[in-house]
Amino acid sequence: MDPELKTEHMAADKRRYQRRPAPGVGLVNVYALGPGRRQFLCCSLLQDISEGGVGIRTDVALPKGTALQLDNRCIEYNVRVTRCSAAGGGFLIGLEFVKEPL
C-alpha cells in the first residue's frame, strides 16, 4: 500500500465544515491534473459535500496532495486529496476545493 495513504477514519470532529449527502449528483469523472494536461483516472460516486470540499468513494487509491478535477453534466470542481482511507473493498477519499489554478 502507498505510504501516503492513511487508514484512519474520516472523523467528523476534524472537519471545518459540516458535510451533507450529495443526492442527485451521483457519478463524477475523476481527472488527474498536471502542467498542461488532464488525464482520466476513474468514475467515482460522490458521497458528500460541504463548503470546503467533497468526499468520493472509488476503487482507486489516491495519494494525499494529488490535484484532481471532478466533473459531470451538473458540476465541475478543482480539488486536492486531503485523505484516503480503505473502506468496503474500495477507498473513501476526502477532497478540498482549491481556488488557485492546478
Key terms for this structure?
102 residues, mainly beta, Thrombin, subunit H, six-stranded antiparallel beta barrel
What does this structure look like?
The chain has strands at 20-21, 27-34, 37-49, 53-58, 67-71, 76-87, 90-97. By secondary structure, the protein is mainly β. It has one domain: Beta Barrel (Thrombin, subunit H). A 6-stranded antiparallel β-barrel has the order 2-3-4-7-6-5. Strand 6 and strand 7 form a beta hairpin.
Mean pLDDT: 80
Total tally of structural domains: 1
Q: Strand order within the widest sheet?
A: 2-3-4-7-6-5
Number of helices: 0
Distance between the terminal alpha carbons, to the nearest Å?
Answer: 26 Å
As an assembly, this protein is: single chain
Q: Mind summarizing the main beta sheet?
A: 6 strands, antiparallel, barrel
Portion of residues within helices: under 10%
H and E order:
EEEEEEE
CATH level 1 class label: Mainly Beta
CATH superfamily label: predicted glycosyltransferase like domains
Radius of gyration: 13 Å
CATH architecture label name: Beta Barrel
Q: Could you please say which CATH topology applies here?
A: Thrombin, subunit H
Quick summary:
The chain is mainly β and 102 residues long. It has a single domain (25-97), classed as predicted glycosyltransferase like domains (Thrombin, subunit H, Beta Barrel), CATH 2.40.10.220.
Present the secondary structure layout.
Blueprint: E1 20-21, E2 27-34, E3 37-49, E4 53-58, E5 67-71, E6 76-87, E7 90-97
Antiparallel strand pairs: 1-3, 2-3, 2-5, 3-4, 4-7, 5-6, 6-7
